[in-house]
Design a protein that fits this description.
- By secondary structure, the protein is of the alpha+beta class.
- The chain folds into 3 domains: 125 residues, Beta-Lactamase; 97 residues, Beta-Lactamase (2-Layer Sandwich), CATH 3.30.450.20; 50 residues, no CATH class.
- It is 38% helix and 30% strand.
- A 5-stranded antiparallel sheet has the order 2-1-5-4-3, sandwiched between helices.
- A hairpin with a 4-residue loop joins β1 and β2.
- The protein is rod-shaped.
- The N and C termini lie far apart (105 Å).
Length: 320
């Protein structure tokens, strides 16, 4: 049977592979956890050391030992069970000063043919930048929510494809629906049935063209009645002009709509009266078309002059 044990060339290839690995890797031998191998680029840079081979973890990295990691290695060596750490904060010495890092790592026991543990394989990834970015994002999101919730207006946001994933507190206070219940396409159920198709059409047009969203529709209030609101939204674009999000608002305009209706009815009533005054049957009851004498205040009768006005038309012009 052909011998398939790795050749020296294969082992050299394997060593080069580990040396060039983007993650930090090391091999610790024996119960003292002596470094037998570590990749220069990633591992030595992570722990801020120039050389480690031949030294135990406690000797090479006393600050790491002081943080309890040698005890963890001891448990892995004794139990034969791997240990996984996610986003673990460590402190390494660099130039006599402590440097904080955040790492994801695995301590994997290395076994001999008889099953006994002879060492530990270490693989670690520097997660400092990722965790920092996540922290900054959470802080930014917290500020955004604080700002939007302090505004006395309903604010919402969607992903680039129009999927609704955020509403501020004013939305939930106004509609009375549970938090998260209008995410996705659930928001359309809040519209008056007669407005849903029209609102969807306008929204889809904005998503396709990138044009600002602007529409008036009836939204269900927490009281159960439908009230008119003004919906607006603007796209947010990246450096290449691609839409990455939409931010929108809803403003209750029921009072404005009611005022419009009052004005419309008043205008119609005025037009009706003027139309009536123009007929022969209404002329005896109106001053329309009559010639009147007009005298400026404080003037003599001689100063008066005759004027002709059409009262209804004048009034109508003022309303218009």
């Amino acid at each position: 049977m052909k011998d398939i044990r790795p050749s020296s060339y294969d082992l050299q290839q394997l060593q080069r592979l580990f040396l060039q690995a983007p993650a930090a890797v090391a091999w610790l031998e024996g119960p003292r956890h002596v470094y037998r191998f570590c990749n220069d680029d990633a591992y030595l840079r992570l722990v801020a050391r120039d050389a480690l081979v031949g030294l135990s973890v406690a000797e090479a990295l006393p600050e790491i030992a002081a943080q309890g990691f040698v005890e963890v290695l001891d448990r892995v060596y004794a139990s034969g069970e791997a240990y996984v750490g996610n986003e673990v904060e460590i402190e390494v010495l660099q130039g006599g000063r402590g440097r904080r890092r955040v790492v994801d790592f695995v301590f994997q026991p290395v076994r001999e043919e008889d099953g006994s543990v002879s060492g530990i394989f270490v693989q670690a990834t520097d997660a400092t930048q990722r965790v920092g970015a996540q922290s900054a994002l959470r802080e930014s999101e917290g500020k955004f929510r604080a700002i939007t919730n302090s505004i006395d207006q309903m604010i919402w946001s969607t992903q680039a494809d129009g999927f609704h994933d955020y509403y501020n507190d004013r939305w939930y206070e106004y509609t009375g629906v549970p938090y998260g219940s209008t995410d996705g396409a659930g928001w359309s159920d809040m519209f008056h049935p007669d407005d849903q198709q029209r609102a969807w059409a306008v929204w889809r047009h904005s998503l396709v063209t990138g044009e600002p969203y602007h529409i008036e529709y009836r939204l269900r209030h927490r009281s159960g009645e439908y009230r008119w609101v003004l919906g607006r939204a603007q796209p947010v674009r990246d450096e290449e002009g691609r839409i990455v999000r939409w931010f929108g608002t809803c403003t209750d305009i029921q009072d404005i709509v009611d005022a419009r209706e009052v004005l419309r009815r008043s205008s119609e009533e005025l037009e009706r009266r003027c139309s009536c005054a123009a007929t022969s049957s209404c002329r005896p009851k109106s001053n329309c078309g009559r010639r009147t004498r007009w005298r400026p205040s404080g003037s003599s009768p001689a100063a008066s002059r005759t004027t002709s006005t059409t009262c209804c038309r004048a009034s109508s012009a003022r309303w218009r």
